[in-house]
Write a structure and sequence with these properties.
It is a single chain. Helices cover 50% and strands 14% of the residues. It is elongated, with a radius of gyration of 25 Å. By secondary structure, it is of the alpha/beta class. The protein contains 11 helices and 8 strands. The two termini are 35 Å apart. Helix 2 runs parallel beside helix 3, helix 6 runs parallel beside helix 9 and helix 10 packs antiparallel against helix 11.
Length: 337
């Protein structure tokens, strides 16, 4: 067993909780731990590291258990299946005991060295310390453009401002975490929820590192799904846009109907117009079915919410306390002098 830091032996519970969701990241966990531990020891506060295995099919859970064998500050949760990144984070938040909770990815693209800066900002009184990625010069232009479009679209539709480059690498004060845990909604989008909650916040910029090993789990399809979940969980503006377009197309269709009746009954100049008729009808039905699909998507999410199924299921745990059982209070936050 690795010798504990002196502060860890004195404290009744951890001040800093680090939550790391992991899906098929067995090759990265030990390297992440080796970089993370010295940073946390340098900070000089009691801590815990909670790895959440999001239904991995590789050796991720066994690697978590091996890390715990050498260091009891390492704790683990294993979900019964792959519930998704946001739910894995939420599971970690439920079991975190710290006065501050830091979330980060397992692939080492979120540099552990930035944690010291996050904690400094927290000690200055910021309840939320976000991070924003600084893109490298060789960052793909298409990916950058799509990301900017998403952040601006989300901010416009939801009324909640997301800065370009924000990710789930952040520090949250215990008070913010407690508020966040009250949310039981389907389609969790934590980036938006954290900003919606409010509280004093700041942003720390960092340079994104290369993935240590393996491949990204966020395919283009998953990114689109994630983006849609973010928009639809926060805003009904798409439905209102549908209503507006529906009104405009209805006005246009009534105009064409009135024009046809006038030509037939008054002017007597009606000419068979099969192509134009089919074109107008096809356009209107196309728009109709698009927005019926949009409405069905929202109704489907209402159905999922009404079922009230658990957001995730923990199959196994190692060293974690029961959800919401904490040994630290927000008043224990060490302040900078």
């Amino acid at each position: 067993m690795v010798t504990q830091h002196p502060d860890e032996r004195r404290s009744p519970g951890p001040t800093i909780s680090v939550v790391v969701p992991a899906y098929n990241e067995a090759q990265n966990l030990r390297e992440l731990y080796s970089e993370l531990r010295p940073v946390l020891l340098t900070v000089g506060m009691p801590y815990e590291v909670i790895f959440v295995d999001d239904g991995s099919s590789d050796e991720t859970w066994r690697e978590i258990l091996r890390l715990r064998e050498t260091d009891e500050t390492v704790k683990g949760l294993r979900l019964s299946r792959n519930f998704g990144h946001q739910y894995a984070l939420f599971a970690g938040f439920q079991h975190a005991s710290g006065s501050a909770v830091i979330s980060m990815d397992a692939d080492l693209q979120h540099p552990p060295q930035v944690i010291s800066q996050l904690i400094q900002e927290w000690q200055r009184g910021n309840k939320i310390v976000n991070t924003a990625r600084v893109d490298p010069k060789d960052f793909p232009l298409a990916k950058k453009l799509l990301a900017r479009i998403f952040y601006r679209t989300f901010s416009w539709l939801s009324g909640v401002r997301l800065e370009y480059g924000m990710a789930d690498f952040r520090l949250l004060d215990r008070k913010v975490v407690d508020e966040l845990l009250k949310f039981r909604e389907e389609g969790l989008f934590l980036r938006g929820l954290v900003q919606w909650i409010g509280y004093r916040s700041t942003t720390v910029r960092f340079s994104c590192a290369e993935r240590f090993s393996g491949v990204t789990k966020y395919t283009f399809r998953k990114m689109l799904k994630f983006g849609w979940h973010g928009v639809s969980s926060f805003s009904i503006v798409p439905l209102r846009i549908g209503i507006t377009i529906g009104i405009l197309t209805s006005v246009a269709s009534f105009y064409f109907l009135a024009d046809a009746l006038y030509s037939k009954l008054v002017a007597g100049t009606a000419v068979p117009g099969w192509a134009s008729t089919v074109g107008v009808v096809s356009l209107l039905f196309g728009i109709l079915f698009i927005f019926l699909g949009l409405l069905a998507e929202y109704l489907g999410r209402v159905l999922v919410q009404v079922r009230a199924r658990p957001l995730f299921i923990v199959a196994e745990s190692a060293g974690t306390v029961e959800p919401n059982v904490r040994r630290h209070s927000p008043s224990d936050v060490p302040q900078e002098h």
